Amino acid sequence: MITPKMMQLLWAVIESTHVSTLLGFDDAALVQLLLKQFKTQQVLDAQATSRLNTYIKSKLPLIRDTAAGRLSTGQGSY
To answer: Whole-angstrom Cα distance, residue 70 to residue 67?
Structure first.
């Protein structure tokens, strides 16, 4: 299960990731990057890493849509 705290931290990581990264990386590379950035802020065991990996994969269209929205509103620098 992804806890609310994990979701909040993950979306903070996504929001702090540059738009060009979110839009330019392929799916596998983006998932790995977001996991790596998440793990710098919170320690995860193998099971939690697997669940978070699955969650990120399921949210890639939303992540990219959010990034495109940031780009269109001029918020792409952060």
So the answer is: 5
